[in-house]
Design a protein that fits this description.
Largest sheet: 6 strands, mixed
Shape: globular
CATH topology: Nuclear Transport Factor 2, Chain: A
Number of strands: 6
Oligomer: single chain
Number of helices: 4
Structural class: alpha+beta
CATH architecture: Roll
Strand content: 35-45%
CATH class: Alpha Beta
């Protein structure tokens, strides 16, 4: 019996569901820290470039349910959501900020995105499933402050240039009713 040669893609696929190695984990963490920096610096057009063209950016509503009904507590695609966006709709929102017509962001908010608990697992030969926790502080004008906490689950593609591109982002807030006056912050 002869051994068949394996390619790096085959080896990665065999790791499906496994945590990435420490080198890849470091690269993923730096990618997410850079993303937070772009958002906090208000560099939204640059931030948009980290997303793939077929992006699905989704933040479902959640409800309080009994433990036996926990599976029903998070909304599904096609149901009401805080965000149900594509790369094109995010680009439209960013252009609107720059137009001066986004009153909720004029003057602009100051934000601080704290990203932690990043775990990356192989989803396929060129995709990762990355989970992270976030705490986002937002301040606008003198007295408006908002604090958001939650988690994100992303599908991240390895790009040919060695970078990463987010193809899907699901944002799950820890609270089921947001207290903010508006939801103009990106997560």
């Amino acid at each position: 019996m002869t051994e068949q040669a394996t390619t790096p893609a085959d080896e990665q696929f065999e790791l499906h569901g496994q945590l990435v190695d420490s080198d890849m984990a470091y690269k993923v963490q730096q990618f997410y820290f850079t993303e937070a920096e772009l958002l906090d610096d208000g560099r939204f057009a640059d931030w948009l470039e980290i997303f793939e063209e077929d992006l699905f950016y989704f933040a479902p509503l959640r409800t309080n349910r009994l433990r036996r009904q926990a599976a029903l507590s998070i909304g599904r695609e096609g149901e009401a959501a805080y965000f149900d966006e594509t790369k094109e709709s995010l680009a439209w929102r960013i252009r609107r900020y720059d137009s001066g017509m986004a009153w909720a962001e004029d003057p602009p908010s100051r934000t601080r995105h704290l990203i932690s608990n990043i775990t990356a697992r192989w989803q396929g030969p060129t995709e990762l499933r990355v989970r992270s926790a976030f705490l986002v502080y937002r301040n606008r004008l003198q007295t408006e402050t908002d604090l958001y906490s939650g988690g994100r689950t992303d599908i991240v593609r390895l790009r040919e240039d060695g970078g990463f591109g987010i193809a899907r982002r699901e944002i799950l807030f820890d609270i089921n009713v947001l207290q903010a006056k508006n939801l103009s912050t990106f997560f």
